[in-house]
Inverse folding.
């Protein structure tokens, strides 16, 4: 997938999102980022660096550190590498709302026989990606498993390891109360109460 779909969906005169004119040259360990995005619905965007771009999934319920949770992750268009640092307000158009960075770090594909890019490519093709995440919130092994029943549908699942939890996990509880999205949500709910 090229960045064509990313470009056609957006008007960069209106949107502060990165135009992504060039592919990033891979250097060092590949990165991941999770952005919390208040658009028409609040969701999380999970992105993995791959071949100079970010493979991207929208995760409606957010990631979980509990292996019992199978979180639906809808594959969306590739995003430019620079998107990893994007946070702010998209005033109008596609994805209009607020984006904040929920977690970021590095990842390692878990197929030691292959280079990271080749290993992820193989996993994406086979519909079974296994990675080790090194973030602040997301740590340890995760799997992304493609659904046969739903186009672009994948499941994001924590593997059992020393970082896994067995209590219910709600990513919302790991978001600062005063984050830009939470402040906007509080403002709109107090406005509703007053009117
Ligand atoms: Mn999004």
């Amino acid at each position: 997938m090229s960045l064509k779909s990313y470009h056609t969906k957006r008007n960069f005169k209106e949107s502060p999102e990165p135009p992504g004119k060039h592919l990033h040259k891979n250097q060092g360990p590949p990165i991941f980022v999770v952005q919390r995005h208040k658009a028409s619905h609040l969701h999380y965007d999970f992105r993995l660096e791959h071949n100079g771009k970010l493979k991207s999934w929208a995760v409606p319920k957010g990631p979980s550190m509990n292996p019992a949770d199978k979180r639906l992750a809808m594959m969306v268009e590739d995003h430019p590498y620079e998107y990893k640092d994007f946070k702010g307000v998209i005033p109008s158009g596609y994805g209009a709302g607020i984006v904040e960075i929920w977690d970021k770090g590095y990842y390692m594909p878990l197929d030691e026989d292959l280079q990271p890019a080749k290993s992820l490519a193989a996993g994406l093709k086979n519909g079974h990606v296994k990675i080790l995440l090194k973030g602040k919130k997301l740590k340890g092994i995760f799997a992304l498993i493609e659904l046969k029943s739903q186009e672009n549908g994948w499941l994001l699942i924590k593997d059992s390891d020393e970082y896994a939890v067995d209590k219910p996990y709600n990513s919302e509880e790991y978001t600062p109360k005063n984050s830009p999205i939470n402040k906007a949500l509080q403002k709109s709910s107090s406005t509703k109460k007053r009117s």
